[in-house]
Specification:
Layout: E1 2-6, H1 10-21, E2 25-29, H2 33-40, H3 51-60, E3 64-67, H4 70-76, E4 79-82, H5 97-109, E5 115-118, H6 126-141, E6 148-151, H7 161-166, E7 171-175, H8 180-189, H9 191-195, E8 200-204, H10 205-236, H11 240-248, H12 269-282, H13 288-311, E9 320-324, H14 339-349, E10 353-357, H15 362-368, E11 373-374, H16 378-382, E12 387-390, H17 402-408, E13 413-416, H18 423-428, E14 432-434
Parallel strand pairs: 1-2, 1-4, 2-3, 4-5, 5-6, 7-8, 9-10, 9-12, 10-11, 12-13, 13-14
Antiparallel strand pairs: 6-7
Helix pairs in contact: 1-3, 5-6, 10-12, 10-13, 12-13, 13-14
């Protein structure tokens, strides 16, 4: 089977590469000629463990190719995935101009039956808009060509996307009006997973579109819930990690996403919660829990700034803060909505100097947070610092040489926003330790 994936961002590139690993012939399309030329040279524009190997292997096997020629890719493909960006708009909704533009391009190019699949995270009703845009272009050409529209939302975690695609918890396929042909084609495309007994959810397009928002909003809610409990723990002398363990051992709740910290970030949770809330308001409803989740997340970042200020005894002007971790989570270079950036800006506004280090996100952070000093490693970031802040829990931050750190720093202070250190051990090394919810 030949498929086209339009958009070589995070979702599009992972989707295309992984389908080619199944033996499917995949053409990835993008308007960015520089990016396409880089991909053809084997240059991966995102940090995702294992992706470079899969891309290289399938390019060599002639199952994966990259092009700016959308017409040829669309003509060859039976299934066309729309995986372009869906950025947040100013009012909290979702900007669908790229989706609509691609849909119109498909309508101008198709000559035979195709299945057009929305892979990007989109509001309910987007598939209807995709169909309308394609049909308008066909009408303008005076063409009568049957096509199907489906929704196949992605559930990929940055830093673990390859495993999530190859061994997913579920595959969701939404089709229009009991479209058996489109469903059969999509199931054939995913046949390697179907044979491995991966659960498949077959539903209508609106349900499929909403399912991604529902999943992400619920996970974000778990994060905000445990962060709210962390505030109570600090007030009464409780331990939020112990509480999270008590909750997580209940199989009805589960232990994942119950880690107190500086709040959620990235390309999905912030945008998707905002979009879900905005969509509900447009329908005359209020997603009260989702709205509260967003508010708690914003407040939690401000609380992290306050923790650093308090560790500095309220004297921030002219102090040097070492920020360890800039990406929104480990194993990615993605700094979109990263808590570290808001924390850095808040401290800079109070007169602090920032020395920062991240294993993967240095280049992107340098552009997003001007004025910070980017360091070659952890210990350079700690040199001359008045306080150490651990914002992202990269593995290399978990076993720091605290004796060396104490010698390098002006003052031995640690604000551990991810609770990766034992407070007593850090105190025994001569540090003033501040955690979250304990």
């Amino acid at each position: 089977m030949n498929i086209a994936v339009i958009g070589t961002g995070y979702v599009g590139l992972v989707t295309g590469a992984c389908f080619s690993e199944f033996g499917v012939h995949v053409t990835c399309v993008d308007q960015d000629e520089v990016k396409i030329e880089g991909l053809e040279r084997g240059e991966i524009p995102i940090y995702e463990p294992g992706l470079d190997e899969i891309v290289a292997r399938n390019v060599r096997g002639e199952r994966l190719s990259f092009t700016i020629d959308s017409a040829e890719a669309i003509d060859r493909a039976l299934v066309i995935f729309i995986a372009v960006g869906t950025p947040a708009s100013a009012d909290g909704g979702t900007d669908l101009r790229f989706v609509e533009s691609v849909s119109r391009e498909i309508g101008r190019q198709i000559e035979s039956y195709k299945v057009i699949v929305t892979k990007s995270t989109v509001p309910v009703g987007t598939s209807d808009r995709v169909r309308a845009c394609i049909q308008e272009e066909l009408d303008a050409r005076g063409m009568e060509i049957r096509f199907s529209v489906a929704s196949n939302p992605e559930f990929l975690r940055e830093g673990a996307a390859i495993g999530d695609f190859m061994r997913p918890d579920r595959v969701v396929i939404g089709t229009e009006n009991n479209d058996d042909q489109a469903l059969a084609i999509m199931k054939d495309l995913y046949r390697p997973l179907y044979l491995n007994e991966t659960p498949f959810v077959e539903t209508n397009v609106h349900t499929a579109e909403l399912s991604k928002y529902a999943a992400n909003a619920f996970l974000a809610t778990k994060i905000s819930f445990i962060n709210e409990l962390s505030v109570l723990c600090e007030s009464v002398g409780g331990d939020v990690q112990a509480i999270a363990r008590v909750m997580g051992l209940d199989r009805r709740i589960g232990k994942k996403f119950l880690h107190a910290g500086p709040g959620f970030g990235g390309s999905c949770f912030p945008k998707d919660t905002q979009s879900a809330a905005h969509f509900a308001r447009e329908l005359g409803h209020e997603l009260t829990i989702v709205e509260a989740t967003i508010q708690v997340n914003a407040r939690q970042r401000l609380r992290m700034i306050d923790k650093v200020v308090s560790a500095l005894d309220g004297e921030v002007e002219g102090k040097t803060v070492a920020v360890l971790g800039l990406s929104f989570k480990p194993e990615t270079d993605d700094i979109r909505e990263a808590p570290a950036l808001e924390i850095i800006r808040g401290l800079q506004a109070r007169g602090a100097k920032i020395q920062a280090y991240d294993p993967a996100a240095m280049a992107a952070a340098g552009e997003a947070a001007p004025g910070i000093v980017l360091c070659k490693d952890v210990y350079e970031a700690l040199t001359g610092a008045d306080v150490m802040t651990i914002v992202t829990e990269w593995n290399e931050f978990r076993m720091l040489d605290l004796a060396r750190a104490r010698e390098l720093m002006l003052e031995p202070r640690m604000v551990d926003m991810r609770n990766i250190y034992d407070a007593e051990r850090v105190a025994a090394e001569g540090f003033h330790y501040v955690g979250v919810g304990r």
